[in-house]
Amino acid sequence: MQASHIHQTVADLLAHAAGRMGSRMEAEMLLAWVLDRDRAWLYAHADEYCDPESRQRFDGLVARRLEGVPVAHLTGWREFHDYRFRVTPDVLVPRPETELLIELALESALPDAARVLDIGTGSGCVALTLALERPDWDVCGTDVSGAALSVAKDNRNHLQADVELLEGSLFEPVQARRFHLVVSNPPYVAAGDAHLDQADLQHEPQLALVAGTDGLDLIRDLIVQAPRHLEPGGSILIEHGHDQAMAVRRLLQAAGFRQVGSRQDLAGIERVSFGRIP
Description:
The chain contains eleven helices and nine strands. By secondary structure, the protein is α/β, with parallel strands linked by helices. The protein has a seven-stranded mixed sheet, with helices on both faces. A two-stranded antiparallel ribbon has the order 1-2.
């Protein structure tokens, strides 16, 4: 292979792509995917030359990323809480801030064989992670989208997680069943929010993003219905928008929840609110 060809080494390819994309990390993720290596390998082999076919595939992915296609849609996968999840345009791309739901759920004082419900499971990243971390829990995930559930089932199969997955809106699929913990990352973006114009979000399912004029429509319904599906002393954890914590706490209090509060994510934003039924 001719060493004189521009942008031929791993280091050159990454530097050029990162300059175009504005993100070194995303460039590394795409090149690692093309080469079927991990990102650590790229650093250890920065001076190696890439073959023309790999360069062409990488350039094609960079071009699509510049068009706004999320990296996870280009590779088909996203890491979440040390697990690898299949991702398609039918589900939201798992985000780091959602790991706070996992953290708080695992901190919860639940009985052995606790029943846990994840509403709006999408790719299944929350439900499956909880089942893998706590195999003694009885975990169920629901979603109104059959296409999203298909992705969750694929993830359940490749991760070999024991999770029940049901199609339907909110608590509809579980009927009269009760749970010790309900977790949810529901749609919470307001219709007309300027963030919806961002290229990444235009490639994600609007059904999983938008919830009414203030973004709280689904959260209101979830909170009102939750007490009928929680065991005495049961808890709820809800991810929400950066400016919605106070409104969600008020909704929880109005629905009869106690020990209501919110927890900040790593960016210092109140991202998850919670409460307990007496």
